[in-house]
C-alpha cells in the first residue's frame, strides 16, 4: 500500500511538470482553453482521473494524496490564471499595433448636394421682395372654390375658368389651387392694410404637357395694399425686381392686358437678358421677353375682403418660377425641373 500512494505522488508530480511545460509553449486563448479541459477539466481531466483511485486508499493515504492533488490543482489553476492574463495583455498589444490609425491619411470625400435650380430662383426672387419690405407667406395647396375663384372675381360662368382647367378634389367645392392668390385673399381677410406679401408655391392646372407646360408648376404672387398706391409704384417695384434678378441694365415695358382680379392689368416684358435686346432664339428675335402679369387690385376684391375701396388701393402681380428659371439659365424644356436627372441638376 505504501508503494501505491508514493507512486501516485510521483504521477502527480510528473503531471504537474508536464502540464507546466506545455503551458509555457501556449500562445493563444484557444490552446489555453484546451489545456484547461485536458488537465483541470471536471469530466475527463487528467487530475480528475488520478483522483478516481482515492476511494481505494486507506484513510492516511487519502490524506496525503488528497493534499498533493489539491496542491497540484491550486498550482495549475494559479499558473493558468497568470497565463490567461499574459495572453490577454499580448492580444491587446497586438490589436493596438495592428489597428493603429494613421491620422495623416486624407479623409474620404462626402458627396455634397445643392439646392434645386427652381428652389434657388424661388428663394432669390422672394428675397428681392423681402428686401423691399414684403412678407413671405406660404399656404394651402388644396383650396376652396371660394378662395381660388369666387373671391377673385371669377364667378362660376366666367370664361377664365375654362382657361384654367382645374383639378377638382370635390367638383365645384374643393380643388388644387390654380394660382397662389387664394392665400392673399386669406391674408387680406385676416389683417387690415397696409398689406405687403409675396406668396411662393406650387400650383396645379390640368393642361396638355409639353416643353413649356406642366400640370404642376411654381408661382410667386405679390400683393400690396395701402392708402396711397398707384400704377407708378407697380411699375417701379417690378422693374427693380427684374433688375435685381436679371442684371442692373434690364429695362421693362408694360403692355395692357386682362385679368379678372385687376383693373387695369398689364403684362411686363424685359429686354432679352440673353442678347441684351438685339434679337435671338430666346426672344424670338423681338428683343423682348414677357416675365410677369400684374395690375391694380380690382375694387370688387377689396370690397369682398372687407376693405373700403374708396380708401385703399393696391397692386398685384404673378410670376411663373419655371419661366424665370428657363430664361435665367437658358433652359428649353420645363420637364427637366421635375425629371431629377443628375446630368441636368449638376449643372447648377
Ligand atoms: C400671371 C398673372 C397675376 C395677380 C396675378 C392677384 C392676386 C390678388 C389680387 C389681385 Cl389676391 N391680383 N394676382 C394679379 C395680376 C396678375 O398673375 O400671368 N401670372 C403668371
TrEMBL record:
Domain Aminoacyl-transfer RNA synthetases class-II family profile as annotated: residue spans: 119-347
Alphabetic keyword roster: Aminoacyl-tRNA synthetase, ATP-binding, Cytoplasm, Ligase, Magnesium, Metal-binding, Nucleotide-binding, Protein biosynthesis
Superkingdom in the source lineage: Bacteria
Residues holding Mg(2+): 263
Catalytic activity, as annotated: tRNA(Phe) + L-phenylalanine + ATP = L-phenylalanyl-tRNA(Phe) + AMP + diphosphate + H(+)
Location(s), subcellular: Cytoplasm
One GO CC term on file: cytoplasm
Swiss-Prot/TrEMBL cofactor(s): Mg(2+)
GO MF term set: ATP binding; magnesium ion binding; phenylalanine-tRNA ligase activity; tRNA binding
Cofactor note: Binds 2 magnesium ions per tetramer.
Coiled-coil residues: none
One GO BP: phenylalanyl-tRNA aminoacylation
Subunit: Tetramer of two alpha and two beta subunits.
Recorded family membership: Belongs to the class-II aminoacyl-tRNA synthetase family. Phe-tRNA synthetase alpha subunit type 1 subfamily.
Name of the featured protein: Phenylalanine--tRNA ligase alpha subunit
Native source organism of the sequence: Reticulibacter mediterranei
Amino acid at each position: 500500500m505504501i508503494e501505491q500512494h508514493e507512486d501516485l505522488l510521483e504521477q502527480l508530480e510528473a503531471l504537474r511538470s508536464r502540464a507546466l511545460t506545455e503551458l509555457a509553449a501556449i500562445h493563444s486563448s484557444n490552446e489555453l482553453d484546451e489545456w484547461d479541459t485536458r488537465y483541470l477539466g471536471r469530466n475527463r481531466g487528467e487530475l480528475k482521473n488520478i483522483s478516481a483511485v482515492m476511494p481505494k486508499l486507506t484513510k492516511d493515504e487519502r490524506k496525503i494524496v488528497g493534499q498533493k492533488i489539491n496542491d497540484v490543482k491550486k498550482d495549475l489553476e494559479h499558473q493558468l490564471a497568470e497565463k490567461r492574463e499574459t495572453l490577454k495583455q499580448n492580444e491587446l498589444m497586438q490589436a493596438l499595433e495592428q489597428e493603429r490609425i494613421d491620422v495623416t491619411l486624407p479623409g474620404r470625400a462626402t458627396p455634397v448636394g445643392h439646392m434645386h435650380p427652381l428652389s434657388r430662383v424661388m428663394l432669390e426672387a422672394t428675397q428681392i421682395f423681402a428686401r423691399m419690405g414684403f412678407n413671405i407667406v406660404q399656404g394651402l395647396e388644396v383650396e376652396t372654390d371660394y378662395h381660388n375663384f369666387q373671391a377673385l372675381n371669377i364667378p362660376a360662368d366666367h370664361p377664365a375658368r375654362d382657361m384654367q382647367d382645374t383639378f377638382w378634389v370635390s367638383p365645384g367645392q374643393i380643388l388644387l389651387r390654380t394660382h397662389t392668390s387664394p392665400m392673399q385673399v386669406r391674408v387680406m381677410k385676416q389683417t387690415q392694410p397696409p398689406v405687403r406679401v409675396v406668396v411662393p408655391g406650387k400650383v396645379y392646372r390640368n393642361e396638355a404637357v409639353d416643353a413649356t407646360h406642366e400640370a404642376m408648376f411654381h408661382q410667386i404672387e405679390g400683393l400690396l395694399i395701402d392708402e396711397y398706391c398707384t400704377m407708378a409704384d407697380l411699375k417701379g417695384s417690378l422693374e427693380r425686381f427684374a433688375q435685381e434678378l436679371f442684371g442692373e441694365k434690364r429695362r421693362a415695358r408694360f403692355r395692357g392686358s386682362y385679368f379678372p382680379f385687376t383693373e387695369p392689368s398689364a403684362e411686363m416684358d424685359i429686354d432679352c437678358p440673353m442678347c441684351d435686346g438685339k434679337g435671338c432664339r430666346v426672344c424670338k428675335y423681338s428683343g423682348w421677353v414677357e416675365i410677369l402679369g400684374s395690375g391694380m387690385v380690382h375694387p370688387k376684391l377689396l370690397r369682398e375682403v372687407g376693405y373700403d375701396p374708396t380708401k385703399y388701393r393696391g397692386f398685384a402681380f404673378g410670376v411663373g418660377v419655371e419661366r424665370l428659371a428657363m430664361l435665367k439659365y437658358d433652359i428649353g424644356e420645363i420637364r427637366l425641373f421635375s425629371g431629377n436627372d443628375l446630368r441636368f441638376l449638376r449643372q447648377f
